[in-house]
C-alpha cells in the first residue's frame, strides 16, 4: 500500500499569497507602474485580502471574542494610519483633506456598509438578526462622540479660519480620542466583555432569546498556539501588503479620478474601501455563521480605531507636515453622519433587526457614495 504524502502548511495558498503580495509591494514601491503591473499588483491585493480574512479568523478562534475582532480592527487601522500619513507627506496641499475624507469614509462604510450587509445576511439566515444591544450601543456612542469631536467641531471653531483646529484644539482632540479609545478597549475586553459576545439564538432567532446566553466558543477545536502565532504573523504580513499595494496603485487611482473629473474626496473613499475589505469579508462570514455580534464588533471597532488612532497620529505628524490640515466636514456630510447615528440608534436599541434595518443602512451608504461622486 502506498502512503499519502502530507503537504507542508508552508505551501498553502494562505501562506504563499501574502508573501507574494509583499514581494510585489517591494518591487512596486516608489515606482511609476505600467498598466500590466497595476493589474498584477491589484490581483496581489485581492489575494492578500482573502488571506488576511483567513488568518484573522484563525487568530480569533484561538483567542475568542471580542479579542479576535479587536486584533483585526487595530491591525488594519494602524497600517491605514501609516498609509494616510505617507500619502499626506507625499501629496502636499492637495492632500490636506485626505485624513478627513478617509476617516469619514471609514465611518460610513463600517457603520452603514458592514453593519447593513451583516444584518441582511443574518436576517436572511434566521429571519431576525440577533445581537447584544448593550455592547453595540456602547460602541455606537463612542463612534458618535469621536466623530463629532474630531470631524464636526472643526467646522464651527473660530480660532483658525476654515474647517481647521488650532494647535491646542488638535491636541485636545487627539488626547480625548486616545482616552476614549483606551476606555472602550478596557470595557470591551475586561470589565464588560460579555456585552460583546455573540448571542446564542438556539438556532431560531424568531422565537426570542435569553439575554444572558452567549456563544463563548465555536464547536470546532481551536487551533494550536503555534498555528495561531503563525497566522498572526501572516495576518500582519497580509495587512502590510494590502495597504502597501493599495498605495502602489493609488497614483493610478488618483489619475483616474482626476481624468474622470471627480472630486478629490473620492480618493479617500476608494482607499477606505480597499483597506476595509478584510474586515468586510470577515464580518459577512461571521454573520453567515449566526454571529452577528462579531460582525458588529468588527464594524464599530474599526470605526472607533479609525478615528481614535488616526487623529492622534495626524496631530503628531502635523509637527513636520507642511500645509493646512482640514478636518471639518461640510454640511452634506454632517447630515449623513447625523442620519447614520439616528438610524443606528434605532437599529441597535431592540437587539434584533430584520431585512428592513439592513436595507436602510445600505441605502444610507449608497447615498454617501453617490454624493461623493456627485456632490
Topology:
Blueprint lengths: L12 H16 L6 H29 L3 H25 L6 H29 L2 E2 L2 H24 L10 H25 L33 H35 L5 H11 L1 H12 L3 H26 L13 H18 L3 E2 L1 H19 L2
Antiparallel strand pairs: 1-2
Helix pairs in contact: 1-2, 1-7, 2-3, 2-7, 2-9, 3-7, 3-10, 4-5, 4-8, 4-9, 4-10, 4-12, 5-6, 5-10, 5-11, 6-10, 7-8, 9-10, 11-12
Short description:
The chain has 375 residues and is mainly α. It has one domain: A middle domain of Talin 1 (Up-down Bundle).
Just give the CATH class.
Mainly Alpha
Strand composition percent: under 5%
Number of domains: 1
- CATH architecture classification: Up-down Bundle
Shape annotation: globular
What gap, in angstroms, lies between the N and C termini?
70 Å
Which stretches of 5+ consecutive residues score pLDDT under 50? Answer: 207-213
Organism: Streptomyces yangpuensis
Main location: membrane
Keywords: Membrane, Transmembrane, Transmembrane helix
InterPro entries: Alkaline_pH_Ca-Antiporter (IPR052946), NaCa_Exmemb (IPR004837)
What does this structure look like?
- This protein has a single domain (13-373), classed as A middle domain of Talin 1 (Up-down Bundle), CATH 1.20.1420.
- Helix content is 72%, strand content 1%.
- The chain has 12 helices and 2 strands.
- The protein has helices at 13-28, 35-63, 67-91, 98-126, 133-156, 167-191, 225-259, 265-275, 277-288, 292-317, 331-348, 355-373, and strands spanning 129-130, 352-353.
- The protein has a two-stranded antiparallel sheet.
Characteristics of this structure?
Ionic transporter y4hA; 2 strands; NaCa_Exmemb; globular; Alkaline_pH_Ca-Antiporter; single chain; two-stranded antiparallel ribbon; 375 residues; transmembrane; A middle domain of Talin 1; mainly alpha; membrane
